[in-house]
Amino acid sequence: MEWPPLSAGAPIGVFDSGIGGLSVLRALRSVLPEERFVYLADSGHAPYGERGEAHAVARAFAVTEELRRRYAIKALVIACNTATTAAIDLLRTEHPDLPLVGVEPAVKPALASSRSGKVGVIGTRGTLASGRFARLIESWSSEGEIVSQPCDGLATAIEDEISAPGFKSGAATDALCEQYIRGMGDFGDGADQIDTLVLGCTHYVFAEPSIKRALRGAKVRLIETGDAVARQTRRLLEQRGLLGKGGQARVDLQTTGDASLLEAAAERWLGIRNPS
Questions:
Q1: Inter-residue contact 58 to 226 (CB < 8 Å)
Q2: What is the pTM of this model?
Q3: 238-269 burial string, b = 16+ CB within 10 Å, else e?
């Protein structure tokens, strides 16, 4: 299919399987304050990471076409590790004109900042079982030891927490973080301890308090990818002459699931009280 030419005044599309990508959107808004964004939470078809690669690919293609058709987006940020690992190469082939930015576990910067040379990666099963992640690990394995841990159910628990009255429910997130973190080995600043932990799912940024409780005071650096993704998005737009200038910043929130959940999350984490 042929799409209309990209326009600097068009919005940037951002999508995730749910609300986790709001952590990336937060970084994008900071680095690109004059841009318009449309965020699509594909909650009606989540979780991607536990439903197989074919499902993630199909949804990534459907969402990309929807955002191009309805909003004529000028760039797309895939704010989901599972969708990135499964589909970004295929999407680049299908949409060669569209600037695409994905997220992947930040293994390289984690190893660079680690003193012990031992880092941990937590993510969805779909991300950590993917060929793309395997190649990433292989390419950096000579730089240190990488301990990965799939966290089944954690992204869902984080989304469920948002829907609780007053956002006070965190027992499920706490329990899962405790289970998975404790199963990875020893954390701390010792010679044979994991001293750096990569948050390999955009949802996990919002579970940092639970993760830190599970670490029980151990000195561990947490690494996520939002800022790096935002900077790369800005670079691509500059290269293509697509940076928005002097426009009215706006966020259009869309979801295939519960709109009240997305609105509550946007108000809590982005300070958007009346998303349009």
A1: no
A2: 0.89
A3: eeeebbbeeeeeebebbbbbbeebbbbbbeeb
Bridge partner residues of 223 (DSSP): 198
pLDDT tens-digit series, residues 47-89 = 887 788 899 999 999 999 999 999 999 999 999 999 999 999 9
Name the amino acid, one letter, at 140.
W
For 221-235, write each residue's pLDDT tens digit: 999 999 999 999 999
Architecture, CATH, for domain 12-103+226-270: 3-Layer(aba) Sandwich (3.40)
Topology of domain 107-223 in CATH is Rossmann fold (3.40.50)
The full set of domain ranges for the chain reads 12-103+226-270, 107-223
Average pLDDT, rounded, for the chain = 92
Catalytic residue among 28, 136, 201, 220: 201
- Residue 80 a catalytic site member: yes
pLDDT top residue among 273 and 140: 140
Of residues 22, 75, 80, 198, which has the active-site annotation?
80
Q: Active-site residue 151, yes or no? A: no
